[in-house]
Amino acid sequence: MLSIAIVVLSLVGLWNAFYFTFAYYGRVKKARWIPEVLCAREGSSCVTVVQTPYARVFGLPNSLFGIIYYAVLILWTAVSALAPAWFIWLLIAASAVTVVLGFYLVYALNVKLHTHCPLCYMGHAINAMLFVLLIFAGFR
After folding, report:
1. Which domains, ranges and CATH numbers included, belong to the chain?
2. Nearest alpha carbon to residue 71 among 132, 131, 14
3. What angle do CA 100, 105, 67 make, to 5 degrees?
4. Is the separation of the CB atoms in 47 and 23 below 8 Å?
5. Is 123 exposed, middle or buried (CB count within 10 Å of its CB: 0-12, 13-18, 19+)?
6. N or C end of the chain: which has fewer CB within 10 A?
7. Tens digits of per-residue pLDDT, 29-71?
8. H or E segment at 82?
9. How far apart are CA 60 and CA 91, in angstroms?
10. Per-residue three-class SS string for 16-74
11. What is the pTM of this model?
């Protein structure tokens, strides 16, 4: 059950990361068929957030790291029985970094950028839930 929750959250996180990567590279245009709550419109807060310095780490979009992170989690759940025991602790450490960075990015959204981004909040919430689930997985 724990693995299923990790996979489901990782798939949603992966979708979100791909969306932000496409937005970062200017591939998100006005799309009337997508609900406005998903920020899928040119000029929306989610699309404009990716153009700020907060959207990059080491010169690359944060979402690219998210794609790698979520893909590794999905792969790990498929082969966790074969993975070395220490690998879960590496995943927990990586997850902790995403949560700490998420707190900073939420702060930046609200205090520095004075904007709200529902998909950003969703991504940070997913990362926090994954962190908790990975801790449970590490102690089972």
Report:
1. 2-139 (1.20.1440.130)
2. 14
3. 80
4. yes
5. buried
6. N
7. 655 555 655 555 555 556 678 888 888 888 899 999 999 999 9
8. none
9. 21
10. HHHHHHHHHCCCCCCCCCCCHHHCCCCCCHHHHHCCCHHHEECCEEHHHHHHHHHHHHH
11. 0.88
